[in-house]
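pipeline/complex-builder :: batch 7 item 3
reading input block
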Amino acid sequence: MLGAFDFSVIQSSLPFVWQGFQYSLKLTLVAMSGGIVIGTLMALARLSSIGALSTAAAVYVNTMRSIPLVMVILWFFLVIPLITGKPIGAENSALITFTAFEAAYYSEIMRAGIQSVAKGQVAAGYALGMSYAQTMRLIVLPQAFRNMLPVLLTQTIILFQDTSLVYAIGAKDLLKAAEVTGKNYGRPVEMYVFAALIYFVICFSLSSLVKRLQTRIAIIR
Amino acid sequence: MNYNWNWSIYLQQIKSGDETYLDWLITGLGWTVSVALCGWIMALILGAIVGTVRTTPHNWLVRLGNAYVELFRNIPLLVQMFLWFFVVPELLPQDLAMWVKQDMPAKEFVTAFVCLGFFTSARIAEQVRAGIQSLPRGQRFAGLAMGFTLPQTYQYVLLPMAFRIIIPPLTSEFMNVFKNSSVAFAIGVLELTFQARQMQEDSEQGIETYLAVTLLYFICAFTANRVMAFIEKRTQVPGLIAAGK
């Protein structure tokens, strides 16, 4: 019953939860920056006229997107030590997994962004004597980023929520920290509520910000 | 790379018991499909109601609907699983709480599909709302001008169109339900991911295990996709771009 809840456990657990939170944040930021860079390159590969390159990118993206993230986390945790020959720990394994996994999702967003840029812009770039790389870097990608910024941020919010799935390999993120302290202090219920509250406050405020940003940066055509 | 391949592992017996690993995988597939389908049906019903409510002219209903969607969209699914499994029973009246904790049949399964149902319903509600709002407002006015009540206008004019329009995003959501059901392993539902972890530990043939499980997830998602494509074809509205010539 609600009367039996004892939320004083939260105060004593704060340092430990803070550590877990920092890891969740680090995982989100690493996967976001790595994912956007690799994702953009993959989007360019997918849209390139070189058949093998675009097929390879398509296969990678579609495979990643049709497997549950938990399974991808388990796969990487199993396969990375087999390749490197030594265990690298759940935390590092998750960093690699999330970067590789999110790259597939960011690449689809960037592909849509690049395709949303008018064809004439590319033609204009070439007409000015720019190379492919210059046209992309100076003309197409800046516009694609701007058009897709709200979607990229929304994907990042989803990514932050998905980091809780590192639970499957026992990495110490926010949720795991809350669970461990909850069990140590014999108050698991309160700690689950606390974790949910942290996730909710962060994700809700970020998604409200994205909504405001969306109306502000929209280009009126 | 140093790995002992053993492709006959599926037919071998588990370490302690008469079952084969294949039996584990089949059990896993059964639970995955059950959780996903029950959650999906629940999500469709709830999502349709909440999504519809968010387009009505009643301000307080719209706000309630918005709050519902924000609540379920901004907490990770895994955390929601734990909330339903560990926290919700504590909030129930004492007798009911005791029953849920001790006597409720298939407790993990019910919790998992209820959780997945609520989680998915918030996303479906978004799509239903977008579908209704994509209709020309003249359709609503026409319905009302014909003398339909508001519920009748929704039932006969708006919803039949809206649902056909949102079939493509519903298709990916249907595939997502199967992927998301994997999170149920955390509360002990014996579904595919649970079996994958269990079989990997028991057999020590990780790659063969994960390959089989991944393949089964592929098959689930692909079947879901084909079923929705069939429905899309049968219900298409003549005259829209989607219907082709």
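note: Chain B has ten helices and no strands.
queue -> next item
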